[in-house]
Design goal:
Length: 644
């Protein structure tokens, strides 16, 4: 029986565990990636491991999120990251060099290798044929220390592509189409592996747009084969030596198969406030738009931006529109400027922003009150733009360009523009001068780590008591994102390296009193519905509640990365055995959970307020139980001198 590509790469990296769906497996990690919003914490954790140098083959640190330097904090963080990189043998991509996933694709990703990154969109690397997975900062710190990474063996779904996309329909629409079929939970426990005739119609950055947004379905990752198209991309990046041909065997088997006819896909939008809230463009056509922004790690490749430039060329944006452009990397920005495309944007009236995440993470360009914003990004969670009353729609660059020109939601196929194809340049302009390579070990040892006053030590939990007592601090609903739990944005991101300060913002978008209540009650419990913690990999969504005394989170189900982060920071994540029990609980109910022996299931929970008893379950490995007992993974690793 033939092997699929995912199994091939996983088995070549397997350290322990049986590759049977649902089993815990540990894999060797070749590359790691961090960015500045999660990186400071990851490196504070790495420092605690007491190593002299990273052990991963390649570790790369990016400065791309915390770019709004409204005071000293973000710049201090960047100085810290730069000094850490120099001290421990890490590549450092300086501010202005671009968004981590875009730059990694251009300069670092290698087919057949494994990558984990402290950012949920790390699967962007799947576009080049790499197993790349998003993880919490501590798991990335441990991978830098040479420890394997543990996942549950996912189901491998063959997404079989046939046909070709229509003009003005693009890779983003494929991602939105899949979201319309799978929703924001349907990908959990799965990897999407792309095959079929349709592959040959998609270049590497277009493939990466699709793997990037697999995150929004809860996928462990997504992967395309490494074929002649991959070789072409790597050649243009002067990296053909990194290419190997890699794909599924002819007779490969899969756990599930899903056919996609590319020619049937239409331009689509994700409506507020979820990337899973998909509609065809026809549903919103004609509605007025206030703001349009092109960019993010999903849609800021050369192909995307030149397509928009061509659509705008010689025209003006509508009077009611405020428009922005964020080139994904310095490489792309250099192309836009040298090939003259920047002129098309500027003349059309588009504001040129820097190569960074920017408004995607609420760093500037917030919409006005009740405004409609159209963005080529991957997330439109409530409040993420910085304006709670705004309605954010996610679209392809083509739809966004049409909205810029007309001022209303517009189907780009109806603009009357003659269809065209954008080819990648013959050679990309290569200039790695904004990437500081690792220093030789002798030099590295003399580097002094620079820590500004906002960088505070990481608070850690004590060992787990036998009984957890307290009250329900908050009861929330379905699909709660880490943007609800630990919001980002210009005001909050500068505190990513200061847990006591950032903790004040926990649940701020849905409940302004949460912090005061948690402090007054000395912690307690969180109760939630399905898919709790979807979205970002930010471990602050676990560390900050842990700092506020949250002892356990009881839900109908979790999202993968957040579940791991809760365990890593000593919050016990438990699921209702009987989901209907959720309905019997209210905020303020007093609980007691017996966690004396977590290896034994079900776990018993008493609700003193309602005089009820509940049964709770989990999927912890023995190691994870031991981690929880120690109060978290760092304490566990220090004690046993090993990872999971
Ligand atoms: C995001 O898109 O939400 C982020 C910001 O890139 C996060 C990481 C973070 O919160 O720092 C992610 O996707 O993991
Ligand atoms: Fe940056 Fe947005 Fe991509 Fe997250 S989703 S890495 S904030 S561009």
């Amino acid at each position: 029986m033939g092997l699929n590509l995912t199994r091939k790469i996983l088995s070549a990296h397997l350290v322990s565990g049986k590759m049977e769906v649902g089993n815990s497996i540990s894999i060797r990690i070749d590359h790691t990636l961090t960015q500045d919003a999660t990186g400071t914490m990851a490196y504070l954790e790495f420092e605690r491991l007491g190593l002299d140098r990273v052990k991963a083959e390649k570790a790369i640190s990016y400065a791309d999120h915390n770019m709004l330097q409204a005071d000293f904090r973000n710049q201090d963080d960047h100085k810290y990251l730069e000094s850490i990189a120099k001290r421990f043998g890490i590549y450092y991509s300086r501010p202005g060099n671009g968004i981590c996933h875009q730059v990694n694709l251009e300069r670092f990703d290698v087919p057949g290798k494994t990558l984990i990154g402290s950012d949920s969109h790390t699967p962007t690397g799947g576009g080049i044929g790499m197993i790349s997975i998003g993880a919490g900062g501590l798991d990335v710190a441990l991978a830098m220390a040479g420890e394997p990474y543990t996942i549950k063996m996912p189901k491998i779904v063959n997404i079989h592509l046939k046909g070709e996309l229509q003009a003005f329909v693009s890779a983003k629409d494929v991602a939105l189409y899949l979201l319309s079929k799978y929703g924001v939970k349907g990908g959990r426990g799965r990897v999407f592996e792309y095959t079929g005739e349709g592959l040959k119609t998609l270049n590497v950055p277009q493939r990466a747009t699709i793997t990037n947004m697999g995150t929004e379905m809860g996928l462990t990752t997504s992967i395309f084969p490494s074929d002649k198209i991959t070789l072409d991309f790597l050649k243009k990046q002067n990296r053909e030596k990194d290419w190997i041909e890699l794909g599924a065997d002819q007779d490969a088997t899969y756990d599930e198969v899903f056919e996609v006819d590319l020619s049937e896909i239409e331009p689509m939008v994700a409506k507020p406030h979820s990337p899973g809230n998909i509609a065809p463009i026809s549903e919103v056509e004609g509605q007025s738009v206030d703001q349009v922004i092109i960019g993010s790690c999903t849609n800021s490749s050369y192909t995307d931006l030149v397509t928009v430039a061509k659509m705008l060329d010689g025209k003006k944006i509508a009077e009611n529109i405020s428009a922005g452009l964020l080139p994904g990397s310095r490489q792309i920005l250099t192309h836009l400027s040298e090939e003259g495309w920047i002129k098309s944007f500027v003349k059309a009236g588009v504001r040129i922003l820097e190569s960074a995440c920017g408004p995607c993470i609420g760093m500037g360009f917030a919409p006005g009150s009740n405004e409609i914003s159209v963005r080529t990004f991957n997330r439109n969670f409530l409040g993420r733009s910085g304006t709670k009353s705004a309605s954010v729609f996610l679209t392809s660059p083509e739809v966004a360009a049409a909205c810029m020109l007309i001022g209303k939601f517009t189907d780009p196929r109806k603009l009357g523009i003659k269809p065209f194809t954008i080819k990648l340049p013959k050679k990309f302009i290569i200039d790695d001068s904004m990437i500081i390579p690792p220093l030789p070990i002798e030099e590295a040892q003399n580097i002094k780590i620079v820590k500004g006053p906002n960088i505070k030590p990481l608070p850690l939990k004590n060992t787990l008591p036998d009984k957890l007592n307290g009250e329900v601090l908050i009861k929330v609903g379905e699909d709660i994102t880490t943007d609800h739990i630990m919001p980002a944005g210009a005001q909050i991101l500068p505190f990513r390296s200061n847990i006591p300060e950032i903790s004040k913002f926990v649940f701020r978008v849905i409940d302004e009193k949460f912090y005061d209540r948690a402090m007054a009650k000395h912690g307690g419990f969180i109760v939630a519905g399905e898919n709790y913690g979807q979205g970002s990999s930010r471990e602050h969504a676990a560390i900050a509640p842990s700092y506020l005394g949250v002892k356990a989170v009881i839900v109908k189900s979790f999202s993968r990365i957040h579940l791991a982060n809760l365990i890593n920071f000593g919050i016990v994540p438990l699921e209702f055995k009987n989901k209907a029990d959720y309905d019997t609980i209210d905020q303020g109910d007093k609980f007691e959970i017996d966690v004396t022996n977590l290896n034994k299931q079900p776990v018993k929970m008493k609700n003193f307020t309602k005089d009820k008893e509940y049964e709770l379950v989990h999927t912890f490995t023995k190691n994870q139980v031991a981690i929880l007992k120690e109060g978290g993974k760092l304490q566990f690793v220090k004690k046993h001198n090993k990872g999971e």
